[in-house]
């Protein structure tokens, strides 16, 4: 039940912040600003030096399971390339695992511990292979290789597939992705690039608010 509830909470949240940075402290600060702006699903990528330190810190900081609580957020790990790394991130406190590609052993490891895993997919073969291993959400990556129309095209033969585009999603096209049937969307550098360039992390909070506003509007118009 915990796994299914978590997947539903990610779906309801709608926007996943994919965070990279030069240090755990920087990523923690970025995450805090994004959460303050309303993005409640945080993916700390394993390209961050000592990334598990950031995952542990954030997992302790946002420990509430109540979506209405101030200290509520879902903390996960991204850019997980193998089962060994997945296990390390789970022990560090990651509640979900995301990979840029399909790796059977990573999926099996996450299934063993009932942790949601979102492998990257580029082809129909990738999606079908993921579904066969019990994957609940497939990450369409890189999303900028496609237009939003790819989702209804894929869900024609595979209506059971939950697809989360990541890479190339921005404020201009988020509405199109949600309208097309995206399970959620992953937001990367567009959320943080202005703040990192200027040193003004308040810009992250402002951009996060804009993304949540755009998501809610898109969600409303889809009903």
UniProtKB/TrEMBL annotation:
This protein's pathway: Carbohydrate acid metabolism
Gene3D superfamilies on file: Aldolase class I
Pfam entry (one): Aldolase
Domain of life: Bacteria
Enzyme class: lyase
Alphabetized InterPro entries for the sequence: Aldlse_KDPG_KHG, Aldolase_TIM
Keyword Cell membrane: no
Keywords from the named record: Carbohydrate metabolism, Lyase
Gene Ontology MF terms in the entry: (R,S)-4-hydroxy-2-oxoglutarate aldolase activity; 2-dehydro-3-deoxy-phosphogluconate aldolase activity
Quaternary context: Homotrimer.
UniProt name for this protein: Bifunctional 4-hydroxy-2-oxoglutarate aldolase/2-dehydro-3-deoxy-phosphogluconate aldolase
Organism expressing this protein natively: Paenibacillus lautus
Gene: eda
């Amino acid at each position: 039940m915990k796994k299914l509830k978590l997947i539903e909470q990610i779906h309801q949240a709608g926007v996943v912040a994919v965070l990279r940075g030069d240090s755990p402290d920087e990523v923690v600060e970025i995450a805090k600003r994004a959460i303050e702006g309303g993005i409640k699903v945080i993916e700390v990528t394993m390209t961050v030096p000592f990334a598990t330190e950031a995952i542990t810190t954030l997992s302790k900081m946002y420990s509430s399971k109540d979506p209405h609580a101030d200290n509520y957020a879902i903390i996960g790990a991204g850019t997980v390339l193998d089962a060994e790394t997945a296990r390390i991130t789970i022990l560090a406190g990651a509640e979900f695992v995301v990979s840029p590609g399909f790796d059977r052993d990573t999926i099996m490891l996450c299934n063993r511990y009932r942790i949601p895993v979102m492998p990257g997919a580029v082809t129909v073969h990738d999606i079908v292979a993921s579904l066969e291993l019990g994957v609940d959400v497939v990450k369409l990556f890189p999303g900028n290789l496609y237009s939003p129309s790819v989702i209804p095209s894929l869900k024609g033969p595979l209506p059971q597939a939950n697809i989360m585009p990541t890479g190339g999603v921005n404020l201009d096209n988020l509405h199109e992705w949600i309208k097309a049937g995206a399970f959620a969307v992953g937001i990367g550098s567009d959320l943080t690039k202005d703040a990192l360039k200027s040193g003004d992390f308040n810009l992250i909070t402002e951009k996060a608010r804009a993304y949540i506003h755009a998501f809610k509007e898109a969600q409303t118009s889809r009903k």
